[in-house]
Amino acid sequence: MAHSEGNKPFQRLPGNVKPILYDITLKPDLVNFTFAGIQSVQVEVVSSTNSIVLNSTEIEIVSASFSSINDGSEIQGSISYDEKDERAILTFNETIKPGKGHLKLVFNGILNDKMVGFYRTQYRSPVTNKDEYAATTQFEPTDARRAFPCWDEPSIKAKFNITIIAPKNRMVLSNTNIIKEETDPSNEQLKIVSFETTPIMSTYLVAFVVGEYEELESATARGTKIRVYAPLGKKGHGTFALDDAVAYIEFFEDYFKINYPLSKLDHISVPDFAFNAMENWGLVTYRETALLIDPENSSCSAKQSVAQVIAHETAHQWFGDLVTMEWWTHLWLNEGFATFMQYLAVESHHPEFEFWKQFAAVSSIAALELDGSHESHPIEIPVGAPAEINSIFDHISYHKGASVIRMCHNWIGDQAFRDGMKDYLTIHAYKNASTGDLWKALEKASKKPVEKMMPTWTCQMGYPLITVSISSVSDTSVVINLKQEKFCIDGKMSDSESNMLWSIPISLVTSSKPGEAKQFDLFSDRSMNITLDSFSLKNGWFKLNPSLYGFYRVNYPVDMWSALGQAVKNKTLAPLDRLQLIDDILALNLAGIVSVAEVLKMLQNYDDEDDYVAWCGVDKCLSHLDILISYTDSYESFQKFGKKLVSKAYARLGFDQKPGEANTTSLMRSLVLSRLISFKDENVIAEAKKKFQAHVNGQSLSPDLRHSVYIAVVKSGDSDFHETLLKLYNETELQEEKVRIATALGATLDDKKIQQTLEFSFSEHVRTQNSWQVIVSVASTAKGRLAAWKFYEKNISEVKERYGSHRSSSVLIEKLCQNFASEEMAQKITDFFEKNHFAGLEKVVSRAIEKIRVNTAWLNREVAPLREFFSTH
């Protein structure tokens, strides 16, 4: 067998042979961790050829033959591999003429332990009390080729007949319903399970699972079967998910006016899973913490997280599955829309979560932070090789994508948005689409220039900073000048960045009518003036971008910042606007545009803040400043400042939950407690110790308090507490609780325990999917930051083996590096990754180094202003 060499540029598969229907039979071996496969693919040969090229990796193709439907002749092919592009080249001695035929392949593969392709996953069976194995799949973006040779590109759609040969004591699931199940005539311990033909779909959406599960079933009003599969003994943990899964199917059917096209939608938990979930059509796979809720031991945040993940994956059944992006450049059409729609769906089913209101705090703020980097990327970005494709599963595709959709939705209105979505989904059903197809549908529905406006947000990276100045003032009106330029986190623009312009929907609120947003024309030039009639600046204020619908930041004149601060203090401004102001002024400070003193002054206006969403902005600001100021001699003063600011919220909320309190109240309490613990509040830490001891002695501790309490006792340095937590970790079967405990252990301030926790992260006691979270928890403390980096350096081979260039590596690199603040560390990390390259993650590394240099510049600039501020406050 030949293997190609060289560094030729990536090219997509040739289009001369197209699959129509795959007939695939797979036989996994759960003892030796291999599988055998046979497939016959009905294809259409478009043009004469003597070779067929398709994707395949980590598969040994034993034989290949082609038979023509026209004359029935069969010819054998030779097999070679292009390992770089993950392809198999099947070469035939005779020319294959245009027409239909069958490509038959016999092959073998491995059930790997990397959580990609067709892989094995380990669990403890309550029946045998032994470690057992299941087999499952994760094909997005480019790993179906690890399970069967295929045309593994999203635009090359086909139908699939799946057959799995598996042990009789295992449940077997796939995208569609079972149509036949019989004993394997060659082995009575095995069964042959065949499934209905799928709709036409992309390879990355194919899925199958072989394992032991308990089933819960319900149905939608239209009769679609909805099932949740939980591990043995955890059936009751699937009830919450089942209720939500039914609700979201019905919500999206009503919203899009397009019925879910399959007869069933299964949701199944997988012990080892790299992502939160995967939207395989008809069979959604999840890690346990993203699907299962223990009524007694799951927190409010866990319930909210499960709800949003199920809603997200259900939205994908339309965005991604029914209509699929033409190529990964348009990934955001899948992920941005599913993220946007999850908020609408959860808000509809769980109004008590106030989830639509949380959009800005969760998605918009996260995307703004990443996209201020010079090392960001456009929403639409050309990608080719698998490593490049993996790298764009990030906050830009998910959260910026969702944020610009939210901006567009607000601009054109809900009804036009619904009409445009229905048109888009109907036209492209069972096909592929590009971003331009979406804009065309929304422009037709709204009669607004969507095709002109939206590409300024998706085809260039970054976003604008609008600088406000007062042009003229009279007794009854004010003329405001707006200037737009690209926001850069280091305050420096390149020549190309200085030429960027966006088409910005402008709106604002004023002190005279704080609940009424005024709309203005699109802002598409470098500057524009707007006039506020019947408005006086005397004791008045105005604020751009109400509710943070626009994806941009704003800088105001000093006097206006002061006036807006008072509107924060007296809560005249809505919570989302209070969130935006504190986040904007922090970003402006990091960029060197305003002083840290201005940030601290603004923070003081939030001492009576009682809204969870606004508090998310306060907590983020305090957290960021805590990291930076920990490098200075003002740290003790800052901790006193922070403790005073947060204590008022604690006095109102208390440590204990109150009967019937809102979900967001519980979430806010968790933030407040964690922040006071980080500020070493003695009263809170003492109360946490008492709660923990009572918990150990059998008194129930609210799941919403556990993580904060666990961190407090770990920080206290008591060895008994540390050992008790490890005991609790080993005793619990709930993955949510294991993650809570494992990440709390990272808060230790003891050098020896820091090393023990890092070693624990890579031990057999921590699942690979969770290991990186434990390392990050250590790196998040000033004490553990350098130790975590050294552990990473020392174990880089193991890191690459576990995570490669997948999403987990991306997050780990950023979280490990971003809190350093010296040129020495920036250079050291640069040198390290030049020697230890992660294909496709070059921008991730560059962003991390950029953050270090932003931190370094901040310290050089702000140490003196910090001292001055704290000397007078």
Automatic annotation (TrEMBL):
Q: Is this entry keyworded Metal-binding?
A: yes
Q: Where is the Aminopeptidase N-like N-terminal domain?
A: 18-205
Q: Which domain of life is it from?
A: Eukaryota
How cofactor binds (record note)? Answer: Binds 1 zinc ion per subunit.
Q: What is its EC number?
A: 3.4.11.-
What membrane topology term does the record carry?
Lipid-anchor; GPI-anchor
InterPro entries xrefs = Aminopeptidase_N-like_N (IPR045357), Aminopeptidase_N-like_N_sf (IPR042097), ERAP1-like_C_dom (IPR024571), M1_APN-typ (IPR034016), Peptidase_M1 (IPR001930), Peptidase_M1_aminopeptidases (IPR050344), Peptidase_M1_dom (IPR014782), Peptidase_M4/M1_CTD_sf (IPR027268)
Q: Which residues form the ERAP1-like C-terminal domain?
A: 541-853
Q: Which GO terms describe its molecular function?
A: metalloaminopeptidase activity; peptide binding; zinc ion binding
Tell me which Gene3D superfamilies the record gives.
1.25.50.20, 2.60.40.1910, Neutral Protease Domain 2, tricorn interacting facor f3 domain
Which positions, given as ranges, span the membrane? none
Q: Show the active-site residues.
A: 313
Instruction: Pull one GO CC term from this UniProt entry.
Output: plasma membrane
Which key words are in the record?
Answer: Aminopeptidase, Hydrolase, Metal-binding, Metalloprotease, Protease, Zinc
Indicate the principal place this protein occupies in or around the cell: membrane
> Which subcellular locations apply to this protein?
Cell membrane
Q: Could you say which cofactors this protein requires? A: Zn(2+)
Record domain Peptidase M1 membrane alanine aminopeptidase: where: 240-457
Which processes are annotated in GO (biological process)?
Answer: peptide catabolic process; proteolysis
Looking at the UniProt record, the site noted as Transition state stabilizer sits at: 398
Annotated residues that bind Zn(2+) are located at 312, 316, 335
Family recorded in the similarity comment: Belongs to the peptidase M1 family.
Which PANTHER family does the record associate with it?
Answer: PROTEASE M1 ZINC METALLOPROTEASE, PUROMYCIN-SENSITIVE AMINOPEPTIDASE-RELATED
Instruction: Return the protein name.
Output: Aminopeptidase
Organism, as annotated? Tetranychus urticae (Two-spotted spider mite)
